[in-house]
Amino acid sequence: MNAPLRPDPLPATAPDWGLDDIVRGLHAAREQWRLAHDRKLETSGREFPSRSALHDIIERLCSALFPMRLGPVDLRQGCSEDFYVGHTLDVALRSLLEQVRLELRHVSRHVSRQNPVDPQQLEERAVDIVRRFAAQLPDIRVLLDTDVEAAYRGDPAAHSVDEIVLCYPGTLAIIHHRLAHTLYTLGVPLLARIVAELAHSTTGIDIHPGARIGKSFFIDHGTGVVIGETAVIGERVRLYQAVTLGAKRFTVSADGTLEKGAPRHPIVEDDVVVYAGATILGRVTIGRGSSIGGNVWLTHSVSAGSVVTQAFARNEMMENGGGI
Amino acid sequence: MNAPLRPDPLPATAPDWGLDDIVRGLHAAREQWRLAHDRKLETSGREFPSRSALHDIIERLCSALFPMRLGPVDLRQGCSEDFYVGHTLDVALRSLLEQVRLELRHVSRHVSRQNPVDPQQLEERAVDIVRRFAAQLPDIRVLLDTDVEAAYRGDPAAHSVDEIVLCYPGTLAIIHHRLAHTLYTLGVPLLARIVAELAHSTTGIDIHPGARIGKSFFIDHGTGVVIGETAVIGERVRLYQAVTLGAKRFTVSADGTLEKGAPRHPIVEDDVVVYAGATILGRVTIGRGSSIGGNVWLTHSVSAGSVVTQAFARNEMMENGGGI
Amino acid sequence: MNAPLRPDPLPATAPDWGLDDIVRGLHAAREQWRLAHDRKLETSGREFPSRSALHDIIERLCSALFPMRLGPVDLRQGCSEDFYVGHTLDVALRSLLEQVRLELRHVSRHVSRQNPVDPQQLEERAVDIVRRFAAQLPDIRVLLDTDVEAAYRGDPAAHSVDEIVLCYPGTLAIIHHRLAHTLYTLGVPLLARIVAELAHSTTGIDIHPGARIGKSFFIDHGTGVVIGETAVIGERVRLYQAVTLGAKRFTVSADGTLEKGAPRHPIVEDDVVVYAGATILGRVTIGRGSSIGGNVWLTHSVSAGSVVTQAFARNEMMENGGGI
Amino acid sequence: MNAPLRPDPLPATAPDWGLDDIVRGLHAAREQWRLAHDRKLETSGREFPSRSALHDIIERLCSALFPMRLGPVDLRQGCSEDFYVGHTLDVALRSLLEQVRLELRHVSRHVSRQNPVDPQQLEERAVDIVRRFAAQLPDIRVLLDTDVEAAYRGDPAAHSVDEIVLCYPGTLAIIHHRLAHTLYTLGVPLLARIVAELAHSTTGIDIHPGARIGKSFFIDHGTGVVIGETAVIGERVRLYQAVTLGAKRFTVSADGTLEKGAPRHPIVEDDVVVYAGATILGRVTIGRGSSIGGNVWLTHSVSAGSVVTQAFARNEMMENGGGI
Amino acid sequence: MNAPLRPDPLPATAPDWGLDDIVRGLHAAREQWRLAHDRKLETSGREFPSRSALHDIIERLCSALFPMRLGPVDLRQGCSEDFYVGHTLDVALRSLLEQVRLELRHVSRHVSRQNPVDPQQLEERAVDIVRRFAAQLPDIRVLLDTDVEAAYRGDPAAHSVDEIVLCYPGTLAIIHHRLAHTLYTLGVPLLARIVAELAHSTTGIDIHPGARIGKSFFIDHGTGVVIGETAVIGERVRLYQAVTLGAKRFTVSADGTLEKGAPRHPIVEDDVVVYAGATILGRVTIGRGSSIGGNVWLTHSVSAGSVVTQAFARNEMMENGGGI
Amino acid sequence: MNAPLRPDPLPATAPDWGLDDIVRGLHAAREQWRLAHDRKLETSGREFPSRSALHDIIERLCSALFPMRLGPVDLRQGCSEDFYVGHTLDVALRSLLEQVRLELRHVSRHVSRQNPVDPQQLEERAVDIVRRFAAQLPDIRVLLDTDVEAAYRGDPAAHSVDEIVLCYPGTLAIIHHRLAHTLYTLGVPLLARIVAELAHSTTGIDIHPGARIGKSFFIDHGTGVVIGETAVIGERVRLYQAVTLGAKRFTVSADGTLEKGAPRHPIVEDDVVVYAGATILGRVTIGRGSSIGGNVWLTHSVSAGSVVTQAFARNEMMENGGGI
Fold it and tell me: Which reaction does it catalyse (chains A, B, C, D, E, F) (predicted)?
């Protein structure tokens, strides 16, 4: 297909990139890195989970969760639907087991190197994680159904619940999140993070897998939404695009490293709506039923039923002013 | 390629996920959903349009609209160009017909269930929709050429019109929009929405297919742009990243449902420029030739020739203040 | 797989889209465009670089730069690692040479049409560009290692440097940028731009390949970041999502065209942090060690060590105000 | 990957093949053919079964028949095995239904054109054929197990029954034949023939789907074996490569056409062995337990227990004779 | 999919194949070969035509020759059929041009090394060959139609002409041969040979592209047929499986090399039938209307209307003789 | 692409194949087989080597053995050639190791079940086999070069040695054989057999991997050639199509099983030629320099320099005899 269309008559010397030198240069750069990070020669192949493997796994899980809407075009309900779901889960879980192993092994070798895990224990833990994950899938489906209904009720442009599952980036993000969060709580945060980034890349919605989100959650449009690791979100919450539930400036310890793990993102109670572009930072609480206006910048708690808007939004806009 | 590299010597028992239980659990969850939504058993296969099929269709249409720039690498102008365009359209339209059928059938079964459409009528309508769509393609191409020229005139970094077609996410978004809007006006809003989401996912630009946009339209950078369903945009309008042309809070009827369909997004007249991050909400009118500054929050109409900027942008910034 | 499941019993007439007319209409639209842009018949095939070819090339380069983390799953360190790197580079550079040729030829024919380049000279230049590009790869790898370390130090949620390479969209963006910037400085700006757009589409981070960025650079979250063509960024700079380093309104010459190429984007000195949503416009300088708060809108220079926040962020928020 | 490596500096005129003329010439040739065969314009797409679709279907059926040996590498026995079998059959049978429809429709339009079948009846017949086919699969598996055991007992080089299923072309041929013969008896001879040719192409063994073959059948090596449409083969028969069970010269009717359908191939009774290269022609009977020697040419019946060899095989070979 | 299912707990050392030594050993073997054959370093990439490229080209040509039967499933007759044919030919011929170039260049460098062809002349010749080839396609289609009809008339098992095109290996072989023979006569024998081997591999029918074959040719079953380079076959000839039209022992010159190019295979006149397994060797003539029986070994000419059978076929078979 | 073209208006009931019953039936058939063969439940996944994996491995080995002729189109000689060879071998050997493991494990479990191999020993043996195999590759290449030269000298139609490598099925067969034979002698006969069948399927040439074949071996045309497990072939031997070097009737032991392993195929000494269709059976010796004529049937030894032809070939052919 890529056949060139013109003659190449001149006796050209073929390009010589000095490939040997470049390969040596890259080799040296890798050595330098490995020395700096105290990595010894890895004789056993790449040890990291694979983004593309997780992409496949999530796609299969989506098909198994919503077989008639995200599964293959020609599936029928009835007995063949269960054959499909069973076989698809079988393949997905088997492949997930391998990824779980890779993360556990990686942690064992590089992170807790002083105290490596016994291989047999590691394997048992991997199997246990996948088994627990699998067992939660029916509940995850029920939870996702509440999200789909919330989106249907929340968007006047939606024609049917089916459209929500097929088209809405917010749906894709919450499916990924509920799977990623389960992985996170089961002890494979790197897998969880990769799953979250898959959704981030496709939808522009960046939810850390650590965030805890109640049922009937809906994000409209969604591009630019960021939800931090320790955020806690209640039931029936609705967010619009570019909303940030973030941390304030990190606490730096005396030794210059960042303090990790402490609660540092907002708590958003039930029935809150946050409009586009609003930024809520720090471990503050947004009381239930509150409404946070577009572009609002909020770094303290507000009580239940609050309606927060930008001060200047109503009265400080200057028109016909000079050039920006 | 994925061959494991180490022995697996231990007589391990194979993982048993309790697959039968999970399949039953998922089956029950689906049943519950179908009951809740009054769906009867579908014995005839999945009925929804397919995102991946539409992805293919749009790719082919892009190739047919711009054969020398988005078509295959080795295409030549002249008679083989028309063979290519004709064949590519033939495949794309045939495949589109199937997707149109799926949407019409879905609507007939689930949305207007009381009043199902006669299959023959449905088929005739599907064919008619595709025929009308196809007939508009030359005009769409002419319109897109004005958009490409607008981008070239509007971006000092652009070296050639060809670069605009090949590289600019705004170009991708407007091609998708003009195709999606045509589908929307022809009565297949679900297909239109899927096409819009394809562009949203790739470019971060979220234009509802209902939006009416005049010629010579240009979006620069684009990530985070949201344009609502009833927005009306004139000719030679230019938008930057993260601009929202949205609705204000929705009107909720007495019965608690959202009011649908009413005009609720801005009208932007000819020759308006809206800078990055500006938010314009509600059925307001931005008079022709106006310039809306970056991050401006605007919820009322402005007359022709207005220049709107943020009040504080010039004089209220505090420097060396305390921590955020 | 797509077999229809129902009979198709009616003797329907097959759809006739009037394909001949549409092909003629599109042909006419293309002719009109070519006339308007003074393009003569191209008898030699498509002349533009290919986005999908560049996607492949960049993927291979990523694998060659980080073979154990972005390369194939079953690679081992040691001698086979160098075989892999050498072969992968060989394929990537060869394919890049073809794309470089396409850009140079395109420029020669359409942009500097008065003064076309001699084919042999063009070929020599293409080979020279690829050779120079290849020679810089080891240095690029060293530079990227500083970026990865900066991310690790800058994000309290990061568990290991490996996680940074595998999961962080900011890492993907800076790898693409450092490769794109090298292409830009070597004289193939169109290729550079396509590479930048590949990252933009995946990460929502839009860095113009012309931007100059020092070592240890880190973008967290990233969606909505825009960095302009003439921006200059020092070492150890950290940006959050939705930060814009943009130009102010363009200068329009007397003849109505935009002035091109002049420095028009910010200079950000070493050790600066810019928080989410901040917008910095024009050729201003952010002094070293400064901290620019979230959502700040800044169009003038600030001296070293400045801490800039939104005035209203602390004291002007109105709560329980009326509807937005 | 196919990037050319040399410059193409000469301003060559692009090749012009006179494509319009060739397309017209081919169009005329097709018209001539359609006229000669009284085909009217087909406005409804290609109507023939598809070789590649049948290839897929047979592959799936093989996997469903022998899941642990011809199915996917990572299948496990137990409940996931049945999920796999159920889902694989579901896909295969659905796809087979479409192919059955295509054959029935083709026959209805072109072969029995005077008496076209009602579409609804045609559909019912198609479904009925697939249902009957599906119901026979367990029996076919049992029959194939006897063939595998026969091969194991018959070949001193075989190490295990598993090797027979994985490696022996004779096994591939008999699996295809037993499926093809079932299709043949159910009334879709064209599908049956395509399935037979798939095996012929891979193994060089050409068994007409009409042939009736008893259990425990074994063909060793196999290349060049030809078994005709009306051949009847008993139980525990063994054939070697290049054996022909063919027809004698066809009877030509007065009108010059060949007489069709009459029994014209051999009957081979139980426990017969036919060695390599033997040719048995016409409706003759090879009595049970007979042994037909290599290269024998046989056109009459032989009684049970016969041992037939070439006369010259033992005593008429000339050595050191002249040049051939 | 290939995830291993068991733990790999033992700290195994990774296999070390001594890859460096093997690569050096293979390098030395290649050097030795290149020295022995006086090949200098090829700095310009592989120079041979590609079997897989030719496979693609032939598949496209088959689709263009028989669009409704070998083309895509959903093609319709009428205007879209010609778009398809035109575009398919465009791609196929372009790709063929590249392969023709590769053969001509290879011959110029290695075979007629003393007298290398000027690159521009070579290009002109390549274009000329493809143009002539393309121009003959309509005639080839007409010729192939006669072959299809001959098969239909000659096989009592055939239900329709369509079945012949779809299922018969003899049809596949003759389509390949008529294309290969055209390439052979146009001066690209290596391409022709590769095309012939593609058919040989699929059908077991081995026709040298040099053989001249008249219209209405039919090979039944076909496995094992061999037709030599200088064979000449008239019209309406019918062959069965395992027929050889070969050369007698080659003439060896005084210098020990084989004499090339001289006519050394049979001439088979019009209306001849050759039954399965017959071997005809040397430049003999089989007179028109003759019938050559199965397994006959023939090394001299026979006059028109001859009926040749094996002497022993009727009366020398020994039954119940000893063991072979 | 497979979009149906007609409406499907009738409210058909979807086909119901009784899938549950069929799955149960197949399950029962498998159980029956497993009981009959004393297989216990395999909880650890499929244990057999994979034909498609071996296909890949052999393709990579061919590319590594002949990089400039069977490798990728755009490879260059020089340093990039060795990178390619090294990387290709690395992937191929790694994948081969997995297949070797599968065979050893299969043997350990099913064949020598009484005496299972210790897993660690098994792994060591697998690695050892691949290491020895790899070490022989340079010698195999040298040997294959003699075969290629023999083909060039032996076929008057060959234009260049390159053509032999690219086109000749005999070359493909001998490359596969020399690799398969090495595997066979190293103790993985099942892998060896699968490799042999890959060549058999493509070329119609069936060489048992146990056969020992000297250098400079050439098979012309080849379809139908069969060479048995214990055959021994000297140097510079030439065979034509349909030659059999087979066993006579097998010796059956008192217990009814076939005797295995004993030498039972011919010894063919140096410089022998065997013409098409000749059959040589049993442990006979064909003395060096002999010539065995076409279709000869030979079951006893002949001394050096013999010329054997069919008795009737010269004088017993009957012409114009009755019908066959």
Answer: L-serine + acetyl-CoA = O-acetyl-L-serine + CoA
